[in-house]
Design goal:
Elements lengths: L10 E8 L3 H13 L5 E4 L8 H4 L11 H4 L15 H14 L6 E2 L2 E9 L4 E8 L5 E11 L23 E3 L14 E5 L3 H11 L4 E6 L5 E4 L4 H9 L2 H25 L1 H15 L6 H5 L11 E4 L2 H7 L3 E5 L2 E4 L3 E4 L4 E3 L2 E4 L12 E4 L2 E2 L7 E2 L3 E2 L5 E3 L8 H22 L1 E6 L8 E2 L7 H6 L6 E2 L10 H10 L7 E5 L4 H9 L1
Parallel strand pairs: 1-2, 1-6, 2-3, 4-17, 6-21, 7-16, 8-9, 8-16, 9-12, 10-11
Antiparallel strand pairs: 4-5, 5-6, 13-14, 14-15, 17-18, 19-20, 22-25, 23-24
Helix pairs in contact: 1-11, 5-10, 6-7, 7-8, 11-13
The protein binds flavin-adenine dinucleotide (FAD).
Flavin-adenine dinucleotide (FAD) binds next to helix 1, strand 4 and helix 11.
């Protein structure tokens, strides 16, 4: 952020939110509802609202958790489908922003590239690059709230397979799917075994000649009804908000129960999942090879398929699974480690995402660059030594929005407390020598293991530990003392006009 002429009077807002996906819209709602006197703006790098649900356009794109928990708690998801397609989720997010006037706070085409905290000015100086004009925009804010998701939008994970240049068909990564990809009647191979692969395979199989899912190792796959039977009944008997809350809580509790049982009785859950899979497939199908992972349930995220669509495509012969490894791409497809060949016209590399912490921002605190990997996470949403800064990062074992919404509530509670007591800054400080650092996310998935060392750490105990448990977090957000000995508050030391000058200097 150095080297250019500085705007000596940049625009100031009380809270600056980065990102206009689900978590950014949720943050906007809470700020304007609980803190109506605070000014806020949302800076979004892309030309539209919706984040993930606008970016991904591959066939079949859908949620893999239920919309009653992925939706905003304040705006009922009113469709009968619990597992929703990408376009419906995108519309829901945009309609929510419009309905609550949050869209008027969003500035599209603003990629935030750096933020510098000044303790003298008691504020952040933020620099954004306009993605449409290339112009640099500077703002200041008292509180910076990162709602920038968790992965790199420009660079997905694309392992270097040998021989790709020889392949005469088309290779596509799902993150860059476009409408001109013609797969009707063609032989398609999808490389991968995660949520994207199990979504793509049945969707492509509706029009392709045949789809093969090529996986190095299997994932746990569970079929659930696309429509929640309770939802229809509840909506007939109760008001939309009451019905929504009821189904939301039912799903929260069932997911927690499933997760806890998986942790305590993994063998039982493995057996149940396997029985579920066997029931959906023809007798004699090799479930052991293709659907029996080597890890325990919830060591990685489970894959959910609505109304058994993946199994149906396999049963009807429109799709098949091969568990093997790519040795090389050839002119006509893939040669496998086992010596087998797969012929293909289109190869989809559903090989995953690259994680990206805090939107790739360069963060400085009083002139020092923040080393994210050595920072400790406070209450799952702030960082040790970083004043007036929060980030939204959802659950890995339940819907993302559940946690992001609690984070927004916590931030608003903290800001209200600061206002009431005349504090200008709130900084989590880890001063407990007995605290040990642990990885942020304890998943064994490749995309986590590849980048987790660049992420901040969680601590071994409260308030530095992540519980991945909605009920515990809900109580903490509403009731935990804000003055807990780990959060340091500083009083105002400068007037607003002096602060603006100090931050810009
Ligand atoms: C294909 C797919 C399916 C998924 N399905 C589910 C599901 O079913 N259930 C579930 O719980 N989770 C799911 N997830 C996780 C999902 O990303 C979250 O559910 C949720 O949509 C994330 O919302 P978000 O607003 O936090 O982040 P995002 O949706 O990623 O939005 C972040 C926004 O911030 C913007 N941004 C990032 N960096 C900057 C910057 N530096 N400056 C300005 N703007 C910036 C981005 O452009 C984007 O618009 C899925 C993820 C993927 C990729």
């Amino acid at each position: 952020m150095a080297g250019e002429a500085l705007d000596t009077n940049p625009e100031h807002v009380d809270v600056l939110v980065v990102g206009a996906g689900i978590s950014g819209i949720d943050a906007g709602y809470h700020i304007q509802t609980s803190l109506p006197d605070k000014t806020y703006a949302i800076l979004e790098a892309r030309g539209c609202i919706g984040g993930t649900w606008d970016l991904f356009r591959y066939p079949g794109i859908r949620s893999d958790s239920d919309m009653y928990t992925l939706g905003f708690p304040f705006r009922p998801w009113s469709s009968d489908t619990s597992i929703a397609d990408g376009a419906s989720i995108r519309d829901y997010v945009r309609d929510t922003a419009r309905e609550y006037g949050i869209d008027s706070k969003i500035r599209l085409h603003h990629r935030v590239v750096g933020a510098a905290w000044s303790s003298d000015g008691q504020r952040w100086a933020v620099e954004a690059q306009r993605t449409d004009t290339g112009e640099t925009v500077r703002m200041t804010c008292s509180f910076l709230f990162m709602c920038s998701g968790y992965y790199n939008y420009e660079n997905p994970y694309e392992p270097e397979f040998p021989g790709t240049d020889r392949f005469t068909g088309r290779i596509v990564h799902p993150q860059f799917w476009s409408d001109d990809i013609d797969y009707a009647g063609k032989r398609v191979v999808v490389i991968g075994s995660g949520a994207t692969a199990v979504t793509l395979v049945p969707a492509l199989a509706r029009h392709a000649g045949h789809v093969t899912m090529l996986q190095r190792s299997p994932s746990y796959v569970i079929s659930l009804p696309a429509e929640d039977p309770l939802a229809r009944v509840a909506r007939r008997l109760l008001s939309p908000q009451h019905a929504y809350s009821l189904i939301r809580w039912k799903n929260v509790l069932l997911t927690m129960l499933h997760f806890q049982l998986s942790r305590r009785r993994p063998e039982l859950i493995k057996k149940l999942i396997r029985k579920g899979v066997e029931r959906q497939l023809p007798g004699g199908y090799d479930v052991e090879t293709h659907f029996t992972p080597r890890y325990n349930p919830w060591d990685q995220r489970l894959c959910l398929v609505p109304d058994a669509d993946l199994f149906e495509a396999i049963c009807e012969g429109r799709a098949s699974i091969v568990t093997d490894q790519v040795e090389t791409f050839t002119e006509r497809g893939l040669r496998l480690a086992s010596g087998g060949e797969l012929e293909a016209d289109v190869i989809v590399t559903a090989t995953g995402l690259n994680l990206l912490a805090l939107g790739g921002l360069e963060i400085r605190v009083d002139g020092h660059e923040l080393d994210l990997s050595s920072a400790m996470i406070y209450r799952g949403c702030m960082l040790s030594g970083v004043p007036n800064f929060a980030f939204a990062f959802g659950y890995t074992n339940a819907s993302w929005t559940l946690k992001c919404d609690l984070t927004s509530q916590y931030v608003c509670r903290l800001l209200a407390h600061m206002e009431k007591h005349g504090y200008a800054a709130a900084t989590p400080q880890n001063r407990d020598p007995s605290l040990t650092a642990q990885p942020f996310v304890d998943f064994s998935s490749g995309y986590v293991l590849r980048s987790i060392d660049k992420f901040p750490k969680q601590g071994s105990k409260r308030p530095w530990r992540l519980y991945q448990n909605y009920a515990l977090d809900l109580v903490a957000v509403k009731r935990a003392p804000l003055e807990d000995g780990a959060m340091m508050f500083s009083p105002h030391t400068v007037s607003r006009s002096a602060a603006a000058l100090a931050a810009a200097a």
